[in-house]
Amino acid sequence: MGRSQESFSKREKEKKKAKKKKEKQLKKEQRQEEKSDGKTSLDDMIAYVDEYGNIVDTPPEEQDREEVDAEDIVVGVPSKEEGDEPDENTGKVTFYDSNKGFGFITDSHDGEKLFFHINNVVGEEFMEEGDKVKFDKARGKKGMDAINVERI
Predict the structure, then answer these.
(1) Could you give the CA distance from residue 3 to residue 5 in angstroms, rounded to a whole number?
(2) What is the pLDDT of residues 90-141, one digit of tens each?
C-alpha cells in the first residue's frame, strides 16, 4: 500500500483556510444583525449647512432673514463707476537711454514699472531720468507700456 498524498503541511493549510472561512462568515452575520437592529432613517442621513458654511446635523433655527433682490446680486466683475480710477496716470522716469530712445516710468499710484519709447512721447521734449510725467497705459508685447507720455 502506498502512503497518503496528504502531508502535515497540507493538512495545516486546509485547517487555516477553514478557520478563516468560518470567521469571515461570523463577521458577515454580525454585520447583518447590526444593520437590521439599528435601521437608519432618512432624518439621520440628512445634513444641514449653517450660515458660516459648516456642515451640521441640526436644522437651522428660524431667524429674521434679510431679503435680497435678485437684481442686486452682481455676478462677475462689478462695473466701473466714475471716481474709481484717477483721471491721469502720473509717474517718474526712472531710466532713459537717449541713444536707443526708450526708458522706464514708475507709476506713482501703484509703483508699476512701465516701458515707453520715444515714439510715444508727446511733443519734441527731451526726457531725462527723474522727470515727472503723465501718460496713458496700453498693453504691449511684454507687458504694460506707457503711451502719450508728456512731461509735467
Answers:
(1) 6
(2) 999 999 998 999 999 999 988 999 999 999 998 877 788 999 999 999 999 9
pTM score, two decimals?
0.44
CATH superfamily of 89-151: Nucleic acid-binding proteins (2.40.50.140)
- 38-85 per-position pLDDT tens digit: 666 677 788 998 888 899 988 877 777 778 899 988 888 767 665 555
Sign of torsion, CA 16 18 24 29? negative
- CA dihedral (151, 122, 83, 112) positive or negative: negative
The 3-state DSSP class for residue 106 equals strand
Length of the chain: 152
CB 127 within 8 A of CB 103: yes
